[in-house]
Amino acid sequence: MTSPYQDKNLVTQDRRIARTTVPLTHEEADKTEVKPLVGLVKNASGDGVTLGLGGQKAEKAETPPQGSAESVGIVAAAVILFIAFGSLVAMGLPIVTALLAIAAGIALMKLVGYLVPSPDFTVILAAMIGLGVGIDYALFIVTRYKDSLQAGDEPETATVKAITTAGHAVLFAGTTVVIALLGLIVMEQRLMTGVAVATSVIVLVTMIAAVTLLPAFLGFAGHKINSLRLPRRTSRRQKAASAASRERISGFEGLPGRTRRRGPRGGRGHGHGV
């Protein structure tokens, strides 16, 4: 233990705040062991003196338990995408892409944290933002891919069309979000600077995954993207399109063409229909 009376660097210039380092008996102390110590130190405050513990272990002990917000968000997104696409494969591609991008983004965010520290809650905030934008960006591309397949394109051609159209929109939207988040640095608050940089890293990684990883998944899926479909009735729009297609076919079959007929006296003659 180092006393603030022995080290002047442990006391602020106005001599109103002092700190000292108290090493724990065990480096891997459990949260249940540290929490009573935090409460004991706070209760010792009085007579104009406020005591408190700091450090990673104390912060984790004081942080309330996190809920299942991420799980609820993933389940809700899965249900909405399944209803919208009507296929388990099409539903799973945006979610899997977003989750892999979030995992890679958090790892990169931890590395950036050595240069720009951020608070503990940043991971949860960045994960929620990354989940939202990751599914949204992948949704654009998957929708465009399915439309191209329905138009008769091959999977490779449909993937190229999806990236050259919806992919440009994803890059523009992701860049806009990154710039908006980095705008928090203008506040010149150390806390918000760390949050801005960390969340920007997550959005950047999810944007890159949407235009690189997702096309690879689409290449493996191919026409199977409509597999495991949700049984539902045919929509009015599909019925109308089918009826119009049948009318066009019957119209082509009924068009007059070359005919062969007999002459007026039983002889064979030729004629052309008008």
Key traits:
two-stranded antiparallel ribbon, 4% strand, 274 residues, elongated, mainly alpha
Terminal-residue CA separation: 108 Å
What pattern of helices and strands is seen along the backbone? HHHHHHHHEE
Assembly of the depicted chains:
single chain
Percent of residues in helical segments?
55-70%
Fold and architecture overview:
The protein has 274 residues and is mainly alpha-helical. It has helices at residues 31-43, 56-62, 69-85, 88-112, 122-150, 155-182, 190-221, 236-253; strands at residues 258-262, 268-272. The chain has a two-stranded antiparallel sheet. Helix 4 (88-112) packs antiparallel against helix 5 (122-150) and helix 4 (88-112) packs antiparallel against helix 7 (190-221).
List the helices and strands and how they pair.
Elements: H1 31-43, H2 56-62, H3 69-85, H4 88-112, H5 122-150, H6 155-182, H7 190-221, H8 236-253, E1 258-262, E2 268-272
Antiparallel strand pairs: 1-2
Helix pairs in contact: 1-2, 3-4, 3-5, 4-5, 4-7, 5-6, 5-7, 6-7
